[in-house]
Amino acid sequence: MWGPAGLVAHLLEQLVLHRDRLGLLRGLRPELFRNLWSLAVEEQFYLLWPLVLLFIVLRVSRSARIALLAVVTAASAVAMGLLLVPGSPTSVYYGTGTHAFGLTLGALLAVVSRWWPTRALEWPRAARRGLGIAGIVALAGLLALTVVMPGEADVSYRGGLFAVAVLTAVLIAAFLVPASPLARAIDVAPMRWVGERSYGIYLWHWPVFVLLAAAFPTWTRDAGLAWALGGVAAVITFGAAALSFRFVETPIRRDGFRASWQRWAGGWRRSRLAAVASAVVLVLVAGGIAGTAAALVLQPDSSEVEQRVQAGQQAIRETPTPSPTPTPDATSDPSAPPRS
Description:
15 helices; mainly alpha
């Protein structure tokens, strides 16, 4: 799960990347579990990074670690720009190597911040002030990018997403300064509550939004109703994340799968609250299964990008080819002098 600092930065990044999701839903059927792509990238990172970390800790000096991570981060960002197919960013956006710069940049920040002081008085005043100002500038930059950077433009993948990652890292670094205004603002109780449930919020938000958009398609065509749809989705998402955190994540994290299942199966009758909560969770799970089945039945044969390309090709085919304008002959001009 993310802490409060990571949650704020992640939510800002999601605003930058997905503020035009409503447009993607109009007339299309996006995958119900599309947001799980990040899990695939992260799991690959979790498998590879411990081996790399073991190597660089045992064999590489501190300065070389920082340089190595910086080079890998830059290489990933450059690869995204070079391998981008204009108008079709799917492969570079969902690819592990081309979208790894966010993870490696976070690893770089973790390596660098390992030697930072943990007490406010141990920080030089200039460093605290400088990081505080940098954090505010980074926050303003992320908010600005949510407005000006289009999610489908090539420039977003040729430096735009890397800029988002860099600003996010700067913002998190500012949050790490003890007793700073940004650190105090992010450490309030509501933000801690959300931070503890942040990954559940991320997992729930997209399928909830997709199912609501499918149930109320006309809402996505009106700006006011679209905001209302987002509000309803947020309420359902937070409720589902709170329930799954309380009755699924916490017991499994504390006791393991088998003990949690035995306790749930054998003890739910003894508590009315547990019975009600279990029924709600079952309803949510059943709704998710039903929505998944509907999405699988109704999903298109091609992806959204392929549909757009096919629609463009069809429009080109249906556009009539203009016939060439005939060049008038000299004899057809009444004003031309008669031939001798």
